[in-house]
Amino acid sequence: MIRRPRVMGIVNVTPDSFSDGGRLATVEAAVAHGLRLVEQGADILDIGGESTRPGAEPVAEPEELARVVPVIAGLRARWDGPISIDTLKPAVAHAAVEAGATMWNDVSALGAAPESPSIAAALNCDVVLMHMQGEPQTMQASPRYGDVVTEVRDALLHRAEIAMAEGVRRERIWLDPGIGFGKTLAHNLALIANLQALVDTGFPVLFGASRKRMIQAVDAAATDPLDRLGGSLALALEAARHGASIIRVHDVRETVQALNVQAAVSGEGGVAR
């Protein structure tokens, strides 16, 4: 029986994201896009101002703040649903929460700055701890694991323990296996097939593989991220089948439809909370 996960719509306010970089170049365009995703069925919006694609260069803190804070404030003025800030920087997370964000989505699992766990505790927002081997500039150079499923699970549990030791409430913590972040195709497939290992930790799981390069590794013709909808939907449905609670996607309308049909076939309706 499958209870549909919540759908997180991606709003990238960046010039260099792998799929949609530069498309939302103004605050107005980004806010309008976010509201369209809500109309299409997004339960949560994820706002990012720094690309973390393989090889991406870091963004200075003032620039990232200038990109994301007005967008979050603009969305909050017109929508009262959950908003996530996708950032490594605690100062950006702090400003984003002040502007109306309710979740901190951190690809470093609160490891990019020593003060990140304590700031997350003070913010008292939901926190997504994502697994990444290495850093964006080098993470895909030569990723290696003995047992990728066990190592990713244990690394995330370790980060969760650090966060809780600093005062982050357990019920605020989400885990994300970090598909494509320091992983080969084989690693990604193993993590997806064994996503239950993360679900079984008792922490809710966020899953994001929308338009990612692993789809091209399976279908060589899918060189353009915009041509990866079929693969993205397949991965979303598989993650839902294994118990993911949030699916992070670019194509909200299509994902919501696919998940609703899957839930209807299984005999379970509604959205998982």
What's a concise summary of this model?
The protein is an alpha/beta fold and 273 residues long. It is built from ten helices and eight strands.
Notes on the structure:
This protein has 273 residues and is α/β, with parallel strands linked by helices. It has helices at residues 27-39, 61-78, 90-99, 116-123, 148-165, 185-193, 196-199, 213-218, 229-241, 252-266; strands at 6-12, 44-48, 83-86, 103-106, 126-130, 173-176, 206-208, 246-249. An 8-stranded parallel sheet has the order 6-5-4-3-2-1-8-7. Helix 4 links the parallel strand 4 and strand 5. The radius of gyration is 17 Å and the shape is globular.
Mean pLDDT: 92
Largest sheet, strands/sense/barrel:
8 strands, parallel
Unreliable runs:
none
What overall geometry do the principal axes of the alpha carbons give?
Answer: globular
Order of helices and strands: EHEHEHEHEHEHHEHHEH
Total number of domains = 1
Our measurement of the CA-to-CA distance between the termini, rounded to an integer number of angstroms, reads 15 Å
Adjacency order of strands in the biggest sheet: 6-5-4-3-2-1-8-7
What is the CATH topology? TIM Barrel
Percentage of residues assigned to helices: 40-55%
- Would you tell me the structural class of the helices and strands? alpha/beta
Number of strands: 8
